[in-house]
Amino acid sequence: MQVHKAEFITSAGRPEEYPAGDLPEVAFCGRSNVGKSSLMNSLLGRKNLVKTSKTPGRTRRLNFFEADGRLRFVDLPGYGYAKVAPDERQSWKPMVETYLTQRPQLRLCVLLIDARHDAMKSDLEMMVFCQEQGLSYQMVATKSDKLGRNALQSNLARLRRVFGARLIAYSAETGLGRDELWNRILESCGE
Ligand code: GTP
Ligand code: MG
User: Fold this and answer.
1) What is the mean pLDDT of the chain?
2) How many whole angstroms separate alpha carbon 42 and alpha carbon 46?
3) 14 alpha carbon to ligand 1 midpoint, in Å?
4) pLDDT (tens digit per residue) in 175-187
5) Sequence ranges of the domains in the chain
6) What fold characterizes domain 6-188?
7) Which of 32-41, 102-111, 154-163 is predicted least confidently?
8) What is the per-residue pLDDT across 136-171, written as a single tens digit (0 to 9) for each?
9) Does residue 57 carry a pLDDT above 60?
10) What are phi and psi of 84, to 5 degrees?
11) pTM across the whole model
12) Which residues of 19-41 are buried (b: 16+ CB within 10 A; e: fewer)?
């Protein structure tokens, strides 16, 4: 999949601020620093359209991007970053949950986990939330290039036992998993 035109649309907190129109949307969700922005850039074929940072927890609002006037990507603020001020941590939940439960355009939640780490409670909670809400979701293991072949295979096997067999191994560096994830996205968006 090649995206010809990718652009930032808007940053939103409350539903009134979400962009208008009925383009299908795909949300990207995961712990701070897991690689959401990098994965979105890699899907869109852009270097730094979605801002990445060495400082975790920088994305505090929902950021909407549009690809070829066909669909939108929504970068959700990361969870689980200890240094974020308590009041901001408090505001994360309603902001993200409101979007996930009250957005008819939402077709798929891409849930990111780090390929190097074991299952974390907050990631499981996120997956269970999607299941309970009846949202379509796709698990993705990021930063797969940071592991050797054997370590990656054994970690994936362990993660798949928790998060399901459909987990896609991804690398924003090498493009591993990109075609598979695009197929899933297009299929969810009815294309
Ligand atoms: P927040 O917006 O702060 O929650 O972070 P994020 O989830 O958007 O993560 P981001 O994409 O900014 O990536 C965090 C760091 O991990 C950056 O230094 C990235 O370069 C690095 N990174 C992300 N994905 C990959 C990957 O697939 N491979 C490698 N080697 N590094 C990655
Ligand atoms: Mg980010």
Assistant:
1) 90
2) 6
3) 26
4) 999 999 999 999 9
5) 6-188
6) Rossmann fold (3.40.50)
7) 32-41
8) 999 999 999 999 999 999 999 999 999 999 999 999
9) no
10) -70, 135
11) 0.93
12) eeeebbbbbbbbbbbbbbbbbbb
Can you tell me the distance from the alpha carbon of 79 to that of 31, in angstroms, rounded to the nearest whole number? 5
Cα 52 to middle of ligand 2, angstroms = 5
Q: What is the pLDDT of residue 87?
A: 64
Secondary structure in 3-state letters for the chain? CCCCCEEEEEEECCHHHCCCCCCCEEEEEEECCCCHHHHHHHHHCCCCCCCCCCCCCCCCCEEEEEECCCEEEEECCCECCCCCCHHHHHHHHHHHHHHHHCCCCEEEEEEEEECCCCCCHHHHHHHHHHHHHCCCEEEEEECHHHCCHHHHHHHHHHHHHHHCCCCEECCCCCCCCHHHHHHHHHHHCCC
Tokens at residue 27, please? 């949300």
At residue 91's C-alpha, the angle toward residues 88 and 24, to 5°, is: 120
61 exposure class (CB count in 10 Å sphere: 0-12, 13-18, 19+): middle
Residue keyed to tokens 């998060």? 163
**Quick one: pLDDT at residue 48?**
82
- Pocket of ligand 1, candidates 33, 120, 147: which has the most ligand atoms within 8 Å of its Cβ, to mutate? 33
Q: Is residue 177 lining ligand 1, measured as CB closer than 6 Å?
A: no
